[in-house]
Amino acid sequence: MTRTDPLARVVFALLLLACFAAFIVTQRLKHTPTAVQDFKRTPVFSPTPAGHIKEERISFKLARADRVTVTIVDSTERTVATLVRDRPVARYKQFALRWNGRTGTARGNTVAVGPTGTTIVTPVNTGSPAPEGEYHVRVTLREQNRSVLSPTGFTLVRK
């Protein structure tokens, strides 16, 4: 007859309990919506007189209403342009922005409502033209104290 060590039984029970808890946490995380959803952007734009698409079109939805700061960052994640700062955005409503390819902080904006009810903000960035390259959108959620970088970038072409 073999006898098991009581300590081995306790360790086995604790490991089994930890595995079960990890499974529950993983399932819950899988079903939690991401903070910024439905990122859309124009893959390539050219803010030049000859450019076919002169403004970068950006849009997204939030899982929770928040005050957002939206910036354009280069490939090193350095801020190139700030489009809006601490702007209230409703939850689950598509919020759209346009970027003119210029650097700096927007000195104002125009607001329009699209045919589907989407709020479209066109910031007035008056800095120097941003160089050609790959860019991403960073959305900073003030009340959630976090930032989200767009999963895919876009390209600015000046030719």
Task: Describe the protein in words.
This protein has 159 residues and is of the alpha+beta class. Helix content is 16%, strand content 42%. It contains one helix and twelve strands, in the order αββββββββββββ. It has one helix at 6-30; strands at 36-41, 44-45, 56-62, 66-73, 79-89, 95-99, 104-105, 109-113, 119-123, 133-141, 146-149, 154-156. Strands 2, 4, 5, 7, 10, 11 and 12 form a seven-stranded mixed beta sheet that branches. Strands 1-3-6-9-8 form a five-stranded mixed beta sheet, with no helix packed on it. It is elongated, with a radius of gyration of 23 Å. The termini are far apart. The relative contact order is 0.20. The model has no long low-confidence stretch (mean pLDDT 90).
Which geometry do the CA atoms define?
A: elongated
Question: Topology as H/E string?
Answer: HEEEEEEEEEEEE
Distance between the amino and carboxyl termini: 84 Å
Cα-based radius of gyration, to the nearest Å: 23 Å
The largest pleated sheet is described as: 7 strands, mixed
Structural class: alpha+beta
Helix content percent band: 10-25%
Contiguous helical run count: 1
**Overall pLDDT confidence:** 90
Query: How many DSSP-defined strands?
Result: 12
pLDDT < 50 runs, ≥5 residues: none
Binned strand content? 35-45%
